[in-house]
Fold this protein.
Amino acid sequence: MQFTIEVNNKSIRAEKGETILSALNRNGIIIPTLCRMAEFTPTGACRMCVVEVEGRDRLVTACSAPVEEWMKIKTHSPRVIRARKTIVELLLSNHPDDCLYCDRNLDCELQRLSAEMQVRERRIRGSKIKPRRDQSSPAIVRELSKCILCGRCLRVCEEVVTATSIDFIGRGRYTHVGPAMDRDFNFSSCIHCGQCVLVCPTGALHEKHYLSEVQEQLSKGDVTRVIQYSPLVPYALAEELGVKYNRDFDRLLNAALRKTGFDRIFLSGTGTDILITELTDAVLSARSKNDRKPLIVSACPAWVKYCEQFLPELLPMLSTLKTPQQISGAIIKSVVPVSDDRSRVYTVSVTPCTAMKFEARRDSMTRKGISDIDTVLTVRELARLIVLYGIDITNIDPEPADEPMALRSSASLLAESAGGITESVLRSLAARIGEKGAEKPALKKLRNAGNFRETIVTACGESYSVAVVDGLKGLARIRQMIESGAKYDLIEVMACPGGCVNGGGMLPAGSREAVKQRSRFIWQTDDQEAVRGPEQSASVADLYGRVFDQCSELSDKKLFHTHFSRREVLL
Amino acid sequence: MNKIDDILSRYREGSHENLIPILQDVQEAEGYLTESAIVRIGGFLRMSTTKIYGLATFYDQFRFIPAGRVHMRICNGTTCFINGSGAVVTAVREALGIEPGQTTRDGRFSYELTACQGGCNEGPVVCTGENYHTRVRPEDVPELVSKLKALADTR
């Protein structure tokens, strides 16, 4: 039902049941918000969005108050503007004021609000928050002095990620955000997914930077520098740099990376292709042994840590295959070194993920103390590196990546969207047993919305049942399904809702629709590309047909597997 | 651990609403909230330890380190404050070398600031278990502390 309300002496249409904020936004009026997150229940905690409602003594929070027929609203009266400005001034009163040195300089919501509210002098002086910098996690840094206690991170951690690793600790001016027992991140149940980083309005939570390490290696003389990037990185980088993406951008990135000083450029997508091939093998061999235990995909390092902590009973079903990044890393450190001197090869991986930073440090990802992947960068960090080295990516000539991992199939790009790995495996499976294109409508189901999806695909008289958990909230559903007797051949779990397209190392998407938009790009590309599966990829054929056989370490493919074990943390 | 099992047996599993009563019982039994107790309660109530710790730190009544053998509760209510409890707190801080909520290394002392204890006409008031010390002046603190030290050594 629609009705008319009066806003700033003009009539606008409002929908019954919606909030004042949504009615205003639809009618071209912007109200500043801070603690609000799209698709979450509003709390009205920060009070940035207050408006004046005639007949009410106190200002009303537009984000949480439902709109009503009798309302006469003033959105930018002197009283409202003064209130909003005071809120920003109070937030700034104990803020460290080191914007020039802050990770989020020029990209900070508090900074932006302060500019919007025309804060030009320090009217309120408070004692600064005691600096405390938690660098114990390999992926995420927590700087308490910059925290404005909006509570977005802990809501995401509880309501989306379901890890509940952080909460408000203490009361009043001692309140801060941290893990259980006020420990540092390394003792906590944090799975390094980085969803909190995406929603933090200030520099209080950000990924750990490894750029100085990369710069140091780039200036060394006697090192072979290798970089690999995930299939989504070119698109995400264009987003981050604010340039238009086109089909050539992948090859422009290769050129840019060479200009930065990298000697070899590989595609993590080839690693994804190998993962898809191996997973297909595993599903087929389980079927031939009549083993109806589900195989759970282990390609998401945040999910793997979650499983080790919260669901150790599922570990026996978790595939022992490494993630694409680590599979590529194992190949790089086996193939590239001259006379087996692995320490002279420096490997960097660029991903849309923060948990990969943690994964590269796992024990089983090193050989004789030398990591397969030395440094993991997020897309945001790569953008900074390219800017730092003064490369105009729109004004260079495209170049190919290097053999033996120069090509990827579109299936590996598909894997960056939740459900994509499953879809790719099913496609490979059909291709392997000679069926032309697996049933499209059945596969399409894997691209639906929601945090749980399932489908059944029949190939050569055999039917395969698969499930996708898109965001860890979907785990509740799969548990129900398994308890009620459902049998699955393959279960894919992605910690970030939407998959890697919504990873902690990406430009914050801001809404479910924006995440979906990235997935749509992936699906479109998948439709247009010629090489749609690992079985068609020349790189995969070369690796399996020649490279693996020539390299003693790779020939038994043991390096592609790892092991997982129960992890004791404060849950 | 047995004590905690006893306490938990009186409550329903997974009943979030019982968190505060459980924490109070555990603190009563053990003197403070240990990490293992919090983990145990989290498992029982199917709640994240992060949430439990976050809630417990909101309230002054919960401790996470053992109290001293003598625990001083210094009244910081309005009347005691006007009568100079601030100076008393400073004197105690100097005498013991610890902040409110902390415990001395030897385990003898701990102290906290409280809301009004109801002895306004006799303030500032310092309560040590069953004894009330009234009209405490900062210069009385060293003597009071040495008297309490003897008391602590008998415990």
Q: What stands out?
A: The domain at 2-76 of chain A is CATH 3.10.20.740 (Ubiquitin-like (UB roll)). The interface with chain B takes residues 158, 164-171, 179-182, 188-189, 570-571 of chain A (CB under 8 Å).
